[in-house]
Amino acid sequence: MNKEQFKNLLRKQVLILDGAMGTQLQKLGYLSNALAPEELNIKFPERIAELHRSYLEAGSNAVITNTFGANEKKLSDYNLQNKIEEINIAGVQIARKEAEKFNALVFADMGPVGSYLEPLGPLTFDQTYAIFAKQAKALAKAAPDAIIIETMTETRELKAALLAAKDNFNGPVIVQMTFTAEGTTVTGTDTTVFVTLMEAMGADAIGMNCSVGPAQMAVLAQKILSITKLPLSFKPNAGMPKLINRQTVFPGTADEFVSACVSAYANGAAMLGGCCGTTPEFINALSLALKGKKPVVKSVPENFFLASRTKAINLKENSFAVIGERINPTNRKQFQEELSAGNFTTLRKEARNQESAGAQLLDINMGIPGADEKVLMGKAVREIQETVQAPLCLDSSSVDALEAGLKMCAGKPLINSINGETEKANKIFTLAKRYGAAIIALASNEKGLPCDKAERLSIADSIIAQANKAGFKTSEIVFDFLMLSASAAPEQVNQTLATIMDFKKTHPENKTVLGLSNVSFGLPNRQAINSTCLSLAKEAGLTMAILNPHENWSVFDDEAKALLLGLDHGAKKYIAKHGSFKRAPVQENIKLSPDAALYGAIIDGSKETAAALAKTAIDSGLSPLEVANEIVLKALNEVGDKFETKEFFLPQVIMSAEAAQMAFGYIKPLLKKEKGFGFGKIILATVYGDVHDIGKNIVGAVLESHGWQVIDLGKNISCENIISAAKKEKPAVVGLSSLMTTTMLEMEKIIRERNSLGLAFKIMIGGAPVTKKFAIEIGADGFAKDAVEAAKVAKKLSASG
Amino acid sequence: MLARLGFANGKTVIDQKTTVALEQEISIAKKIIVPKQAIAFSAFKIITDDTILIEPSFEIKSKDIANLLANCHLAYGFAVTIGPALEEKRNEYINEKETSRALMLDAIGSVAAEELAEITNQQIKTEAELVGSLTTMRFSPGYGNWPLNAQKDFLTWIGAQAIGIKLTPSFQMLPEKSVSAILGIYKRQAEEISRRFAPRDDK
Asked: CA nearest A628: which of A618, A619, A620, A638?
């Protein structure tokens, strides 16, 4: 079945899907001799066939294959990764054989990979896409009627799955997320964001399954159906499952299930079935309830959503939207240096501050001369989007950088920008359609910005024609008719305002945007002009602006107005009024001496600047040894003192330690030939049988920051391996960690072994159940209750030789 | 969570940088924690002063548990977990030497697991109160004289494997941020009676 046939089918018929697969297999005891449920497709296909049959006999028009977890990552948990193709193809074939008898459809199931994408988890977008693509390819070989992607909770994984399915399968793709009682997925995505993304990326149908119970899911279905024309699939479970006395109990009844399904149908749901806990009886009751019923069609207004992972904004309802412009390193040397060094502190701060100041979207520009914009754009999007809720505006002239940003983006951003240059515009239309984005289009082309209104409107029309040809939704192009500097091109302001006004009349469905900061270039009291210009542009019909949300946008100045409208030639009246305007001085940061700056950075835990400040201190004439001992270590000692008085708590200590490590990263190579620094080697290990190591790692970070060479053996380390490492490395001290009463006793074993071999190193111990008394009892040389004390104890032990 | 990280009310001064860092990790944690619970309950017999047989065949050898369940008519066990994603993320931070982020995320995970245990305890308590019963305090393997190696049979009785909890050879639960506990249900009048007639300490 192709996409058109699928659409037509759903116009004529309500589809009854099947019910639960996994919980039915469990209930029937069919999982007992299989590694994974999907393995049954090749090991006991008759069991799966039986289940499909039971749903078809109950009234299902479409069955869903037993391939939910049949992706490479999940199958590799059971060492079945080499059977991906076999399992997936078998899954479709088993379903097809049964479905054919009932003239029913087969939907091939794809479930989550089982691990999150960065930054929430370890997988990259490309890795996740590859995993889904392999499964989709296999499924496509068996020619299902549709692919259904189920139980998604995270938007980037969702995007990877949809793209993988679309790239490898020509038929319709249905995408479902699973929502909690709060109306969001566990990663914070609500139904509006879900709709926004799936409409933008061209899913053929969307829906929900499992998680929250049927009645609550019906409420969410109503929400979705009020904002999208996409067909909806509705697959609730039989209530939130409970694991009671080793049995999974689904408290929901068939009555509750059918009632919720009928409600969803009445609101327009096109495909209805059941998820975990539902049975053929549930499906039978549903199919009888909806027998002969025709699809309900409801009218839905046109929307224009942009979204982040957790928030969607509807530009159709927003009378005016502000795009914050501050994430742009142009002419900002320090910001450029920070970004180039991988320091995103200012980036995150700008994002948060702009959102707090009222920006509804955030423009991200990572164009730095000599820097890899593609890498920076990906990193910037990753850093910002977990920090703020505002949707993003990816600002770059590099197609590669835009793609990197789009791949990293968890929402539906705006792309800034295209213009009338056909080839590049087509590339960006393709990207926007693929990853789901709207576009800002500049009314300029390879010849530059046209002088007059007519030509600008003509370029806009040609962009719209190009978008139509490329299959891109033209109402999601936001037009920028460009505002030049009023001092350099005074007549252009009027042209821009007139263009906006005319465009609004001829293209009411399109939004317009302007970047306002340029208009006041070269003139005093710039904000008076910027703000007045904004008012004039809004009057003309402007709907969005890229600006600094921290500035005052309520100013309206008559002289500025006259200047902007071309009534003040040479800006004489304006300059007469504002010529002596002096902007309130920005409070200058007190310039610290290099040693004070570095000392402060260690105290503050500013790891992003510590290495550079260490360099500055050494360049100012201090020796590396002085910088190490008199600044960094001294600062750490103060941090330790603050920790003991509880002025600092542990995160601050560790941040200071990390800053010190960064400083030492610069200083240490210069110290090679100098004596008088550092305490030597220390080996750290969590003892055998214990897999806790966060405490040990914290101790390691603090010790390293104090100049120790830390050799971290890891966790669950046997006595033999610790002793062997100690013989090889000859440390001054060995630090042992244990977080369980059952594993503490290993510490005594190691001490005895050391003693019997006559080895010279000292042993200090620590960990939650470890006490000073225990340390004395087993003959340890030292005990530390926390990381700060560990540094002191290690120093003392090292000095005692 | 702050207390777990050494915060002292009235003494510790948290700067904006640290506040933002904590908020960021909380935001990530909220997205990746997947809370699950498994509950089991059963009648039981106290065979000796340190042996309890929970039906059908789960034996506990612990004087502390025998004391806990004395006067009770039902034993409830639960296991909760926030899932493996948080500690996987924490380990990623450790590998990337982002130790402060690992520390904060780890603390958040510990608090979340304890909170989940508390919620589960409260749910059991509420159910018990509906039928005029009360709950004892909860007790976990590894505390008092209930040895940690009891975790194996205890988790099997609860059915904790179904929510993804496994044990290491040294009986540590994985995912790490998991909690298991036992508590008893007793009828209100038994408690009141015991209060009325329990011998007082002579001073």
From this structure: A618
